[in-house]
Every structure is written in structure tokens, then in C-alpha cells.
Amino acid sequence: MTDMILSETALETASIAGGRGAWQDDETPARRLDHLRPGESCRVVALLGVGAVRRRLLDMGIVPSVCVEVIRNAPLRDPIEIRVHNTFMTLRRVEANRIEVTAVGES
Amino acid sequence: MSSLNPSSRARLKVALAGQQNAGKSTLFNALTGARQHIANYPGVTVEKKSGTYADGDLKVEVVDLPGTYSLTSFSLEERVARDFLLREKPDVIVNVIDASTLERGLPLTFQLIEMGVQVVVVVNMIDVAERLGLKVDPEALAAQLGVPVIVCVGRRGVGIAELRAAVRQMASCAHVRSPKIVDYGTLEDSIADIERRLEESSVRPAGISSRWLALALLDGGSEAETLLIGPAAERQAIAEAARSARETFGLSAGTSASDHVIACRLRHALDTIQASVQDRRRGLPISERIDRVLLNRWLAPVFLLATIWAVYQLSIVQGYELTKVTWPLLASFRNWASSVLPAAGFLTDPFARAFGLWMVDSVNTLLNYVPIFLILFSLIAILEDSGYMARIAFILDRILKRFGLHGQSTLPMVLAGVFAGGCAVPGVMATKAIPDPRARLATILTVPFMNCLAKVPLYTLLISMFFPENKGLVLFYLSTITVVVALLVAKLLTVTVLRKMETAPFVMELPHYHLPTLTGVLRRAFDRTWLYIKKVGTIVVAVAAVIYVLLQFPGLSADRIAYFQGRAEASIAEFHNRMAGNPFAAAVPSQERLIDLINVYTAYRAEKLNAGGKGASDALDAAYASRHPEFVPFLLRRGTDPNARKASSALKTLADERKTLRREMKEERLTVSALGRIGQAMEPVTRFAGFDWRINVALLSSFAARESSVATLGVLFGSDDGEAKRLEDRMEAQGRTNYTPLTAVSVMLFFALYPPCLATMIMVRLQTASTRWMLFAIVFPTMLGLAVAGTVQLTGWALALDGLTTISVIYGSALALLVVVGLYRSPREVWRTVRATPATINTRETAT
Q1: A-contacting residues of B 295-314, CB under 8 Å?
Q2: B630 and B581 within one domain
Q3: Tell me, what CATH number does A29's domain have?
Q4: I need a surface site. Which of A70, B247, B371, B396 has the fewest CB within 10 A?
């Protein structure tokens, strides 16, 4: 089972190009989701990375132009809880670092 | 209905599709009731649940697909769900979506509609959505989607009848909704082109819409090319066309085709919601308000510890109290078995009796834990259903991640007995929820270290014998050192044998809090307890039988038997001597009657021990008096008749002598038995770990099932016939002289780290789909256990420490190692979390 996943991810890595940069707004410098503090909101600009991680984030509704609010940090600061639309979800800082955002201010 | 011949019923196949947390399983249970069948999908470790229900003349088979967010092939679950839909071609697909997060459920609905299959949409947990302030209009939603929409509350069975009716109607409906539901804008031209090519060629498998296939081909990451059939040249041409269309689109649109497809689906989902849902949410959802307290940075650890403490108190501490109530039931079952089986002889018992009682004892030892399991599994079901389990993963992920595990490793660990008491079988089973393959395997391999309920009796036994003054401290050491070692081992495995395995992201939904329902909780608790009992029923009973043979074979030699026979006859003669001239001797005119008397006496003593309170004790006396009036003077030490007192005392001496003889015989039989010889053969190796052959025998038999070790120890420490005494009492009476506290520490630590039982091994084999990992899971812990036990002996001997100090030293060292490993960050990790600068981003993209 694990072998299957392994080889497939390798395949994806080879075949899909990362979509970086295309959505970036030149006016405001892009930040990463993990740099936001709890209470701050942002708009997703682009997802870095490829393969399963990227796909999972997309399936969870984290797509370019969507609004994300950082709710809180876990007691040990990692992972973080965010809100997308009506869903509360958690992701690790490593993954949040793959999400390029522009801040839209305090909510 | 019942008059219908079942075979004449039309059969219908229905698949339940939807994401995790949408309440699919609850709905599945509500639809099919108890008629369920659990198996694996062919070739993979994903569980396939199927069940049936009857609807008039229809027999409907329902298959619960794995929870997925989409139908690509990025995860095993998605691939399994997709392949099932494509290959098995269910008549109707019931798409379950969570009413309060429609925007995440609808993209899957669109994909199902695009496939060109009959879809019924279930908007589930509508009550939760309404409480949040979301008013879903099912008619408007049905109009938007063009498929039937049923509103359900699966937990309460609301909407199930309507759903069955819709399934029935949909199955008889020949018309399939057009797969064109989402407008993909600039990609539409390419879709139309590929669709046209598919229509013209013969590569499209029957039953899949060309639109879905075209989208899957353009999407790129879906392995869609493997779905094509027919001549290789045609397949290649189509795949090539899709690839070039994908590349052209990527260049002109500035985004990949697959991102575009996802974005279009999400936009359409939001439009659909706009037209069919009234959003009257005000302020914060209740769940978030609860989380402000429960997940507060400082309060979260407090609530977590309180929860763990409460689970431990209620299940283990109170559960043990409850076993004190249920134990007499099991003991009376044993006494009943003892009374119906052929009567005991003076020295040896008929085979049917000896074997029957052995089996009853083995099963009783296991059934003793059932109350604890019921409480523990109910509490865990409450934690799961309420939504708090996901929060526990959120709080603990940081720590677990450090050791190569995952936030969702928490549930398997808890089930396996992180708070001293659980079972590795449901624990290993529960690992299937972990989405990260490497962390999942690390969890599977470390879950058996947890203190399963069967380890606990051995601990309590040895602790109460050797550390009566420090019971709490030693139990604390043992119940926490397993976690310490599990974390260390997980880290060790992650950086060595599992190093090259793929990891997956920790992206997890935090579900809204629910009030668990009584039926839901009880159902889960009973299911998991039943799993445990089934293990008793099959593997443990079979192994108990094998061990019985190994313990009895080859038996005592003829002259040893003659020797014991001689001693028995001498003590019987002594009894008759003392009874000479006593009028009560008339009650035992023959040898047979004498054996009857001794058996009645033994049974009476056993039941007397078991009878609680003076009332029960008196009732027992009365019962024996009416059943065996002639034996009364021997049994009931009442009255002042000197003859009666003399008779009773003579009988006691004889019964005690018989008990001694039987114990000596049993011990000799064990020494020469097959299992005893194996244990003795291993002694030279295990001696450095402090184990003599008796302990070897107990540990060998415990591989079959941990419980067996206590059962075998029971034999080693002479369970006398008719005595339903707890092993603690028996062993305490006999064992203290043979072993030192240091030996006890060695045994307990080895036992804590020792390979999982046979049932767990089979579960490991199932969950990893690999015999190699199963063997690894046996060999590695054995080595580790022996090494630790050896270290205990060496440390204790070299530093001349007593048992308690040694275990404290070992515990302290393990804890220190844990802290060091926990604080150490691998270079790779440091590198990963370095603040991103444009220069590092690209290297990281390609490297990871």
C-alpha cells in the first residue's frame, strides 16, 4: 500500500508543475499563512508545492482567492486552526507555509 | 412481504459516497441495521462495509465507500471509491453531504453527476446546520442540482424512509441527468474536443460519461489514462491530445487545468448554495465559543489531562470495582461447570473434568475484563462522537510529530491503553484513520507497547507481591514508561527503517461539537467489546487447548505415580485411624463415599469463599445441609458434639494433604512437560534477563494472548481444584519466596515491551498488508524487551540496587532520553522551517 502511494506521488511530482507566481498581486508583497497571527484574515494567492499536499488543501476548500481566517494556535504553537467559509480546520505550520496569502486585516 | 420468495426479489446495489465526518457511517447503520458485513476491498487495506435492507420486493445492498473529498487518485481511499464506482457500477449512488459545510461537499456531488450515474443527494445533519442558522431549502437545491435531495438526521433516523423511497424511485428511472452541471469557462473548448475524440474512438469504457473522462484526462493527476480501454494506439492518441490541451491551457490561463477545474467547481458550489440556502448565522458558532475555552492556550492542557484522568478513573478504577461484582458470576459459572463435569478422583481427575475446567478458567480470566472494556469503549465513543477527539489530535500533534507520529495517533494509543488498560486489537484497527502512511506504520508498530488490559493483572499481581508499600509509584512507572518507550521507538523507526517512506499533510477538519446519542455510543462500545470477545472465542480458546496439551504431555512416570499413590493411601489410612470409633464414620463406608465427601467439602469451601455476607453464607449452609444431611457433621463446624469436631478436623487434614499432593504432582508434571522443557531449554539465554523457566513458560504462553500468561502463572502457582480464588491471593501465598523484587522489575518491563499477542499480530498483518512488518513487530520488541530486562539485572547487580531503585533509575534514564530526543531537531526539520526567502523556495519545491 505504502509503495503504491510512494510511487504515485513521485509520478505526480514529475508531471505537475507548481502553480507559483501566477496569482501573485504585484502591489502587495505576498506573505505565508503561517506568518499570520490569530485573528488575522487573508486571501489565498497561490498554493506552493505539488502532489498530495496541494490536492488535499484544494479539496478542503483552500483555493486561490478564498478568504481564510486564522483562529488560533495549538497550545504548543503548532498546528494552527483556520476558518475557510464555514469550516474550521487545522494544519501544521509546515503546510501553512506553503500557502501564499495577502492580508485583508483584522476581522 | 415475508410470503415472497426471497430469490424472486429484485436486487439493487447502492453505494454511499461522501466525505469523512458527513455522517456516512451513521446513515449506513440507520439504513441497514444490524445486517452488516465488514471486509477489505480487494488487494488493499481499506475496509469495505456492506449491508442489506429489504424494501418491499426489493433487496437493496448498500456499500459504504471510504470517505473522500473528490474522485481523483491522490489517496488510496479516493482510488478505492473511484474504482468501485467504475467497476461495480452501482444502480444508485447516495451522496451524503454535511448540511453545515455544503461548499465542501458539493464538488464531489458535481463529480458524481459528471460521471453520468444515478445520484441521490442526502443533506445530512440538518439539525446541526439549523442550529448554526443555515436554512437549507431542499427543493431549491434539487432544482439546482437536477437530482433528488433528501434531508436527513442520520443519528435520529429522520429521513431514512424518504431516502429509501428515493433510492427505489431512482433505480427504476431510466433517465439519467445530463453530466453537464459545472461550467468550466475557458476549458470548455478543450473538454468538448476530448469528448468528441472519445465518442469517435472505442477507448471509453461503457457506463462512464465522456465528459467525466475528458475532465479526468485534462485534470492530469487522476491516472485517467489507465481507465481507457481498447487499442493502444488510440489510447495513446487521446492521452497525447489531453496532455497537449492541458499544457496549452496552463500557458494561456496562467494556472494549471486541475486548479482551474477545482476553482470552477467551488465557484459553482457557492452559487448553488447562494440559491438554496438562507444564511442567518449571527456571531460565532457555538462550537467556536466552546473552543475558546477548551482550546485556550493555557486551559487546553488542563482540560486534556482532566479528560484523560476521568477516562482512567471511570473505566479502569471503577471498572475494576465492577469486576468485583461480576467476578462472583464467573466464579459461580466455574462452580457450576465443576458440578456438572465428572467428579474428581482423589489424586487425578478424569480428562473431561481437567480439560473442561482449564477451558472455563481460561475464558473466565478474559471475560473478567468485559465490564472495563464496555466502560472504556463507551467513553472513547463519546470522545469521538462529541468531536473532542479531533481537538486532542490538535493539541498533541506537535509532540507526537516530533517522534514521527501524528495527531491522529492519539486515538489508537488511547484504545490500546495509554492510561493503563485497553486492547491493541482495536488500537491497531483505528490506525486506518491516520492519513500519513509513515506515521500510520510507526503507530501500528508502537501501539502494541501500550498497556493492554491483559498486561495489567500481571502488573498488579507482581506489584502487590513485591512492592506493597509503593504500589502507586510502580504502577505509575509502568503505565507511563510504555508511552515513553513507544515515543522513542517511533522516533527510532522513523529515522531508520521508515526513513524513506512518504509522509502526508496534517490537514484535518475540526468538526462541530455534537451531543453523542446513547444508541450511537452503545453500538460502538458493544461492537468493539464484541471484537474482543470474538478474540477470546477463537484464538485464545484454541491456544489454551494447545497449551493444555503441552503442559500435560508426556505426564508422570509410572513409579512417580506409584509414589504419590502410596502417600495418598497413607493419609487415607490416617483419616480412618482418627475416625475409628467415631459414629460419624458410618457416613463414609467406602472409598467412593470418602472421595464424594472430600469433593463436597472442597466445593463447599469454594462456594463459602465466594458467598458474600452472612445471609448468603447461611443460605449456603442450609442448602448443603439439605443436599448432604449425612455430611453435615463434617462440613458445618457447629455444635459442641466432640465427635463432630473430631470428624471435621480429620477431614480437614485429609483434604489439605490431598491438596499438597496434587500441587506437588502438578508441579512435577509441569517440570517434565513439553512446555516446561522448552522453558528450561531457554533458561541459559533468559537467565541474564532474570527469568527462570517458570517465567519463560508464562511468557511463551502469553504470546498466544497476554491473558494466557496470567492463566499459566495460575497453573504454575497451583490453582487448586474448586478454588475460585483470585490469582493474586494464590501467587502471593506461594511466589514470594522464589523471586526477588529485581526479578519482578525485569519481568514487568519485559512484559511491557514484549511483542504483541497473536491476535494483534494478525491485525498488524491485516493493516500493513505485509508479513515482513508483522515479523518485524514480533522480533524487534522481543529484542528490546530482553535488552531492557538484561539492563535491569545488570544495573541492579552492578550498583547493588534494590528493585524499586532500579526501576526508578531505568525510568529516569528513559525519560531523560525522551527529553533529549524531543528537543533535538533533525537538520532536515530545521531546514524545512527556515523562513522562506525567494531563493530557498525553489530549491524546497524541487527537493521535497
Answers
A1: 295, 297-298, 300-301
A2: yes
A3: 2.30.30.90
A4: B247
- Tell me the per-residue pLDDT of B25-62, one tens digit each, with 9 for 90 and over: 888 988 887 666 666 666 565 677 888 999 888 899 99
The position carrying cell 457450576 is: B336
CB-count burial class (<10 Å; 0-12, 13-18, 19+) for B746: buried
Q: Which of B314, B422, B425 is nearest to B373 (CA)?
A: B422
Nearest CB among A48, A66, A89 relative to B841 is that of A48
Q: List alpha helices for B673-770, DSSP H.
A: 674-686, 693-704, 706-716, 727-735, 741-753, 758-768
Residue B22 assigned to a binding site: yes
Per the model's pLDDT, the better-predicted residue between B281 and B180 turns out to be B180
Asked whether this complex has an ipTM greater than 0.85, the answer is no
On chain B, the residues whose CB falls within 8 A of the CB of A36 are: none
Let me know: does B443 contact B418? Beta carbons within 8 Å: no
**The three grid cell numbers given for residue B489, joined into one nine-digit string:** 521507538
Tell me, yes or no, whether A55 lies in a domain.
Answer: yes
Mean pLDDT in residue range B185-207: 89
Chain A nearest C-alpha distance from B142 (Å)? 22
Please indicate if the annotation marks B64 as binding a ligand: yes
- The CA angle B480-B481-B487, to the nearest 5 degrees, is 100
The beta strands (E) that lie in chain A are given as 31-32, 40-47, 67-73, 80-84, 87-91, 99-106
> For B109-165, what is each residue's pLDDT tens digit?
999 999 999 999 999 999 888 888 889 999 999 999 999 999 999 888 899 999 999
Length of chain A measured in residues: 107
Q: Give the residue numbers spanning the domain of B579.
A: 558-669
Interhelix angle B803-823/B771-798, nearest 10 degrees: 130
Residue window 14-73, chain A: list those with CB within 8 Å of chain B.
15-20, 22-23, 32, 47-53, 55-61, 63-66, 71-73
What is d(CA B236, CA B242) in angstroms, rounded to the nearest whole number? Answer: 10
- Between residues 412 and 451 of chain B, which touch chain A (CB distance below 8 Å)? 437-438, 441
B149 and B223 belong to one structural domain: no
Q: Closest Cα partner for B444 from B399, B412, B418, B420?
A: B412
List of chain B residues whose C-beta atoms are within 8 Å of the C-beta of residue A48: 841, 845
Q: Is residue B647 part of a domain?
A: yes
Q: Which of residues 741-770 of B touch A (CB under 8 A)?
A: 768-769
From B620, B648, B669, give the residue that closes a domain: B669
Q: What's the domain count of chain B? A: 3
Tell me which chain B residues have a C-beta less than 8 angstroms from the C-beta of A78.
397-398, 401
Residue B408 to residue B184: CA distance in whole angstroms? 37
Q: Are B99 and B124 in contact (CB under 8 A)?
A: yes
End-of-domain residue from the set B262, B279, B296 = B279
**B476 is written with which cell numbers?**
505509575
Pairing between β-strand B119-124 and β-strand B149-151 as defined by DSSP bridges: parallel
Q: Does A107 touch chain B (CB under 8 A)?
A: no
Nearest CB to B508: which of A50, A55, A90?
A: A90
Neighbour-count burial for B652-682, b at 16+ CB within 10 Å, e otherwise: eebbebbbebbeebbebbbeebebbeebbeb
- The boundaries of the domain holding residue A38 are 18-106
pLDDT of B349 strictly over 80: yes
Task: Test B401 with A6 for CB contact under 8 angstroms.
Answer: no
